[in-house]
Every structure is written in structure tokens, then in C-alpha cells.
Amino acid sequence: MDRFSFRVCTPAMEIERAVAELRFGRPVILESGKEKHAVLALDCAAPETYDAFAAASEDRHALFVTAQRAHCLGISSSLGIAVPASTMSFDAAARLSYALDARAPGEWREADPALSAAAELARMALLLPAMVCTEIDGIEDRFDACHRLDCAHLSDTRHARQDFTEVVRTRVPLKDLGDAQFAVFRGGLAQKDQIAIIVGDPDFSRPVSVRIHSSCLTGDLCGSLKCDCGDQLRNGLANLRAAGGGVLIYLDQEGRGTGIGSKMRAYGYQHQGLDTIDADAELGLEPDHRRYEAAIAILRLLGISSVVLHTNNPTKIAAINASGIKVVGRMPTHGKITAENLNYLRTKASKADHIFDPEMLATTK
Q: What is the pLDDT of residue 6?
């Protein structure tokens, strides 16, 4: 046991345990210096859990919503706001956190940094970042069974996010593309499996054609017309094959990193006329929560030091360049434009700086 002790708990382990607790609908204690807050993710809390939390806090609890949600309520804030919740029912808290017709609260304060950390933890758990919270000074014994997390750990996970290992590689014949190699890499926070699909015969000693594609269950698997993700996946593989070979890294980060539940909520708001970014903001989310440490780790494990990136997204280019892997060129990857996805693509161009030919988006299909 000299090299490893089961008594040692790393920051990444502490975060993963906190994430699991939130997803089970249980409170977590966040410690920041001498301050200690109990936090509960409203997205996973049952009404009776919410009421029990309120009772344990002696009605000192508050509802935290992010700066994005506060802005939708007409409140300018940099860290988000905390709204006193002593007279707020579970349904009222949900309306204030998510509903399109919610009114700004009459009383609120700028949130403590620890509560912003709570929102980040909720995002890691793929939950909406509305949190019920209370300081536990004087009532700490009521939360003795709760998992504790030092807020500093949330910024101390760089290595864990990049720590991946290849676990298996095998041949898979693909329609219209011939044989490909599917390499599975396991690691990062929560030890997720990520996939590199190697098509053709790329020369890894030279710049490699690479596409980084985030999962989209609705588009990739079901052919949703609301986005062009499925087309980008299939066209991306074909483009890599046509380039003489390349690597498509398929990342498990649905809904621009928000998870399938949040994505479906946002879809509901889009059906009411909001664009994709404004819909996410109503849910307290930023325009894009995707991260690329896993892709960078996989490229390094494959021995790739320079790439021609197949993307329309300048954020991906910046992330790969910042890692030390050189982006020597860019190739666009597009899908079919339809009446259903045209506004979505226009939003990505106007609000997220995705690169499209203006004439392509001028269509009225």
C-alpha cells in the first residue's frame, strides 16, 4: 500500500462524490475558507426534500440563480443572485429559476463566490444551475451526513480532466467509408469513455485532418431537423476519408455540454420562439459549456502534434492551439440547410461566431 492508499481522497474524487450526491437529490456542504454553505440542486430535489431543507435551515435558505438567469429577469449581476426563500414554495422556486413568465424578485443580493461554485458543480452534474442554499453556522450538526467539498477543489482538477488511457481499439466497417478503427479512451472526471474514430490511413508524423464532434442524440441518432449535427458527423467522416485519412473525436457532451435533460428543456423554449442561446440563458446556462481537455489528451496519446481542424467553430481552434497542438489549417464541415435549422445556424453565426458562408445562410428554404 506504499504507492496507493484507499484512505487518500483526491480533489477529483471529492468532486465526483459531490456530483453524485446532487444528482441523487441530496445536499452537499461547500466550504470556502471559514464559510460553509449547504446547497441543494433544485433540478433534482423533490418538493418534500426542498421543504426538509428549508426546515433544517430554519428558513434562512435562499435560492441562487446564475448571472444568465438574473439577466433574463432584468437584473444585472456578475456572480448571480441569491433570493431569500423563506416564504417561497417549491413551485415558486422552480418558476423563478426556469419559467419564461417569471417576474424579478423584490428582494435579492449579489451571490457569494461560493454559490457560483455551487452552480459550476451543478453543471458538472449536468443539472440546471439553480441551487437552494443556506449558511450552516450554528446549525452544522443538522447536515452532518452530507458530503463536504472544498470550493478550491473545483479549480484544482486540471490533471484529472486530462488523464486518459486507451482501453481498446478495434476495426469497424462503416457504410460508404470502409474499415475504420474505433479507439476508446477512458478518463477525466467521472471516468467517461470517449472515442476516436480513425478513418483511412492518416500519417501522424504530419498534420492530421481532425474533427472534434460533440454528441447529439437527436441529430446524430434520430435525424433531427432542428440542427445539422447528424449531417456534420457523417459528412465529417467522409471529408476525413477524402483527405486521405484522419481522426474524428466523438465527445460525450450533449447539448453543448449541458446534458440531454437541459437540452430538451431548451428545445421546449425554442418551440415558443426563443433561439438556442436565449433558451439556454433562461435556464441559467451560458452559450456553450463544452470543454476540450479530453480531445487534447486523445490527440496527444495518438501522437498527433499538428492538425488540420475540420470545424466551423473558432472556439475549438483556440482551445487546440492553446494546448500546444498546432492548428495549421481549417476545413469547413456543413450539413443540409432546412427550414427547421436555418435560424439555428444563423444564431450560431451571429451569436457564437461560427464561420459560415453568408450566402449559404441567406437562403429562405
A: 58
